Amino acid sequence: MIIESKGKIGDGLFAVGAPELPAFLLTGTTPALFDAGMTVMGPLYLNDLRALLGDETPLRYIFLTHAHFDHSGACPYLKRNIKGLQVGAHPLAAETFRKPNAVELIRSLSGDYEDRHAAQTGREDISFDALQVDILLEDGMDFDLGGGLGFKVVATPGHTRDSISFYIPKLKALITGEAIGVYDRNMTIHPEFLASYNDYLASLEKLAGLEPDLLLMAHYFTLTGEDARGYIAKSITRTKIFRKRIEDYLHDLHGAREAVVKRIFREDYEETGAILQEERPYLINLTAKVKAVAEGK
Questions:
Q1: I need a surface site. Which of 22, 106, 160, 291 has the fewest CB within 10 A?
Q2: 3-class DSSP state for residue 150?
Q3: Average pLDDT of the chain?
């Protein structure tokens, strides 16, 4: 089954915020949140945490799949509002958050949405300032949250160099960020190998072995049962097809990467109207994917 990512997903597992930018709350003895969307989502996450936990103070951790603005943007807001909250992420994500240029890009991309949703956030300070990572997460680490709930860290580079996924054995649930791609409005899978096609494909093959019963996608959807177990194989196929398409276009257009980006943007974004992403971040990501294929990464 394919469902919207909202409300209760499994025993002790909830999607908070909104389906387009969900964060996932695991309510063990020590509650933890996975990802923390854009800056504008901070107040919505906080309200949902209060509703589910009684108040926000029991939340002790946020664990990030990667450092992109639509997965980490609300972290500073939540840290300012929840005393003692700690952030866990890959060491490369921690390094990214220390780079002024990276922080400025997060602020810039976030600003596009902050202006649009000003009525939603009011006068609250939702700004993204320097984010300190308190816990460095490495492949294979096990994290016990008590109450029989915990997770394993799975390194899944390819979307970004710092991408990690989280597997919750008790629920057979997998939280991946964009390591497995994203759906569009037509339920077509779009691969997201921004850093490396080769690493991305290897990560997909690694995740396929987990055979999850719950697959919590980066945006909009959660898959259950056979849909969850069958998705990754489909994503592998779509990833290979998309790489071949980029290679063919590079050949046809004599290696002109910008021309390839414009062609795919026209065909996939403008002509179908199916892409569930704003134009600016879509083009940034598409340019990175063409670059990865062109450079054999």
A1: 291
A2: strand
A3: 95
